[in-house]
């Protein structure tokens, strides 16, 4: 795959382990890095982010080839693989670090994210309003090494079996034409 034409999306759908496992499987994705975005303190640790007071969200930076996978297609996967109507919560993960968030890198990403969110709310696709925040990208810090490629490295771990695996199975059925 050509890597000289790579774009970046920074997306949070709750726990970055789930987000990473999903986006890694898409055709056109070059690399997915789990990390933290949106806070002020440089180089936050997982423990600091988990306390919910840093302003950071658990996110994935998705590096992708826009000739293979468009930002619109990334947004479709983003919206359909988590519940964007729960404020600061995804399943049992609770706190602002688990917020549904798109950190846009340019005006086009912001416009597309805003439009998609408005369309979702107008369509009634969800019984409650979409609360996903759309925030300007200002920083990204890679999570500790043990968080990277988590599902692939720990498929038998209980969280992977009971939370990530069912999400992946559903995702693979819905997006089978977009899989690597």
From TrEMBL:
Keywords: Oxidoreductase. Residues 8-161 form the Peptide methionine sulphoxide reductase MsrA domain. It is an enzyme of class 1 (oxidoreductase). It catalyses: [thioredoxin]-disulfide + L-methionine + H2O = L-methionine (S)-S-oxide + [thioredoxin]-dithiol; L-methionyl-[protein] + [thioredoxin]-disulfide + H2O = L-methionyl-(S)-S-oxide-[protein] + [thioredoxin]-dithiol. SUPFAM superfamilies: Peptide methionine sulfoxide reductase (SSF55068). The active site is at residue 15. Pfam families: PMSR (PF01625). It comes from the Bacteria. GO terms for molecular function: L-methionine:thioredoxin-disulfide S-oxidoreductase activity; peptide-methionine (S)-S-oxide reductase activity. InterPro entries: Met_Sox_Rdtase_MsrA_dom, Met_Sox_Rdtase_MsrA_sf. Its EC number is 1.8.4.11. Belongs to the MsrA Met sulfoxide reductase family. Has an important function as a repair enzyme for proteins that have been inactivated by oxidation. Catalyzes the reversible oxidation-reduction of methionine sulfoxide in proteins to methionine. This is Peptide methionine sulfoxide reductase MsrA.
